[in-house]
Amino acid sequence: MRNFEELTKQMEAKGIKPSLQRLLLFNYMQNCHEHPTVEKIYADLSAQGHALSKATVYNTLTLFVQKGLLRIVQLDHSEARYDILTNDHAHFICQKCGMIYDVPVDFDQLHLRFDDAGSVSQRDIFYRGVCRRCMNRE
Ligand SMILES: [Zn+2]
Ligand SMILES: [Zn+2]
Description:
Bound molecules: zinc ion
Shape: globular
């Protein structure tokens, strides 16, 4: 298990009381850049021998999102996926393998021409296509 001390500090900075379960989940997310679903996180932690219930996983993720430690990536009608990157970035979704890639985008170069936006809380941009890995496989 990697530097729990560092993770504890990051959680406390966001006003989250660190428990072992929360640390386990946060540590998992730190090492996972695939934008996993609750199902995947639960399955992976179970496979690692951690006895967290699915409800605990879900509730902890929800808390992390509320506190700004994670953010949700929601595509169309699919289930919520969780993202450890909370700064502005776009996503590229591969329509072949389903992988969601992080894409750096300078959001400040995009000018929102919509006067009725009172305030903006999150900016999402999605690209769809076929990733290079899948292209090379053909
Ligand atoms: Zn792909
Ligand atoms: Zn992302």
